[in-house]
Amino acid sequence: MAKLLDKGDPGQVGAICDQLFHAIRNDEYCGYDPYDALNSRLFSGLGGMRVRVARIVWQQLHRRSPVNLRKLCGVDRSRNPKGIALMVLGLIERFEQRGSNTDLDEAVRLADWLLSQRANRQTWPHSAWGYNFHWAARAFDVPLGKPNAITTCYVVRALLALWRVTNEYRFIECALEAGRFLQSLFTVQDDTAFYRYVPGESAMVHNANLWSAAIVALTASQAGDRVACEQALLAARHSVRAQGADGAWRYGERSHHGFVDGFHTGYNLEALSTLQHALATREFGQAVDQGMAFYRRAFFAENGDVKYYANRTYPLDTHSVAQAVITLLRVGRADEDYALAGRVIDRAIKHLYLPNENRFVYRRGKYWSNRVNYMRWTQAWAFYALSLYSAEGDRRARDAQ
User: Fold this and answer.
1) Tens-digit pLDDT string for the chain (401 aa)
2) Is 72 exposed, middle or buried (0-12, 13-18, 19+ CB in 10 A)?
3) Closest CA to 149 of 267, 245, 23, 277
4) Are strands 192-195 and 316-317 parallel, antiparallel or unpaired?
5) What is the largest distance, in Å, between two alpha-carbon atoms of the chain?
6) At a CB cut-off of 8 Å and minimum separation 6, what does 296 contact?
7) Which of 90, 180, 328, 330 is 20 to 30 A from 71 via CA?
8) Which residues in 142-170 are b (16+ Cβ under 10 Å) and which e?
């Protein structure tokens, strides 16, 4: 199958996407995640959840291991709201490309599942979503059930996209309510305005800040809330001021957040582009142009490989590949970007796709490969990116006629 993709033919990419989708659906959209190790019944039974350092070490052990130890340690496969949101976005691309009610009906079914998975309404009065696991990191320690900005942003994106093609009120109603949750994350510290990644946490992370600003802009403009729109601009300006002269962004503002990677850079660019469109402004045009120039220059090898970090190629990561395709098509938009996206997909199919299993590997290093099947981090991202590329190919073909 990989040999059929040497020229990035959207039709053949669509065939791979079909195979991937059927594999995901056969698993009922359930899977493991790089960060789900704290769902382990073994670890909990041994008392590990009571020690923060142990939580971080246990999580990192499973994230980095090329051998999947989760079943042995009592971690169940489950659905992740962000992963489901990505599937909805991909299904909408397929529906708009093919006009198939089957794809639309499946997107609606998954979106209704998302509505049923909102964070506890007594604790969180506005619609919001978190991950399906306890998440431990140096900057955050987020219990299962606590919502966060990024998951909520992606769910809102899916709900808004589905509302636009179905006109179903429940989707826009929930999306606007979730926008108010994101508004509640707006904070001012030392004369700096930004959106928190996690309620109650003070760490500033640029992709969470910019995506929150973009989604607040979308929902607040729909609701006619000018104050919230202005707050979104204030928060975005903070991240734009933090952009380097070369167009790059550090991940965040903590001392250990100094790295520059491809998929977070792509997030930032897509979010800024979305914000500008939502508020009909070109205020951040220079930042987007500089960021895209850096992105194209720093994260793509001549052969089409997508670099994980700006200063080195490996590991090759399906998540980075998917966001690269999305950024090139959603933000870059030029013919050269579409051609580069095709080369990226060709390379990914040849080196990251497992045709006998109809899925992608998590990561490939220079001398090793991590083939663990991750739903949210890997397969859902790949499905969305391939759906988008295939649909974009059809749109370009129609426009050329």
Assistant:
1) 334 444 456 668 989 999 999 999 999 999 999 999 999 999 999 999 999 999 999 999 999 999 999 999 999 999 999 999 999 999 999 999 999 999 999 999 999 999 999 999 999 999 999 999 999 988 889 999 899 999 999 999 999 999 999 999 999 999 999 999 999 999 998 889 999 999 999 889 999 999 999 999 999 999 999 999 999 999 999 999 999 999 999 999 888 888 999 999 999 999 999 999 999 999 999 999 999 999 999 999 999 999 999 888 899 999 999 999 999 999 999 999 999 999 999 999 999 999 999 999 999 999 999 999 999 999 999 999 999 999 999 999 888 87
2) exposed
3) 267
4) unpaired
5) 65
6) 332, 337, 340
7) 90
8) beeebbbbbbbbbbbbbbbbbbeebeeee
For residue 277, the tally of other CB atoms under 10 A from its CB is: 12
Rounded Cα–Cα distance for residues 207 and 269 (Å): 9
Q: Please report, for residues 22, 248, 292, 322, the alpha-carbon distance to residue 298 in angstroms, rounded to integers and kept in the order given.
A: 35, 9, 10, 16
Locate tokens 């670890």: which residue? 43
Q: Which two tokens stand for residue 354?
A: 């497992």
Tokens 């904070």 correspond to 187
Question: What's the sign of the alpha-carbon dihedral 380, 385, 386, 391?
Answer: positive
| 95-109: b (≥16 Cβ within 10 Å) or e | bbbeeeeebbebbbe
